[in-house]
């Protein structure tokens, strides 16, 4: 097990609606990120669950810093 991985029973999963609220985007945007592979998710029945760490990792990777002049 890698250093940044937790046992599966300790992973916090979020619903699409919860991810949308955290990211302040629509649920459709979250579905697009999941289907495009940018945001990993597992399918539970007809819905998706996204690991909380994956959301934070995605936001950190997507962060665009603004340099002041």
TrEMBL record:
Pfam families: HTH_17
Lineage of the organism: Bacteria, Bacillati, Actinomycetota, Actinomycetes, Kitasatosporales
Domain Helix-turn-helix: 13-61
GO molecular function, one term: DNA binding
InterPro entries recorded: DNA-bd_dom_put_sf, HTH_17, SinI_DNA-bd
Listed name of the protein: Helix-turn-helix domain-containing protein
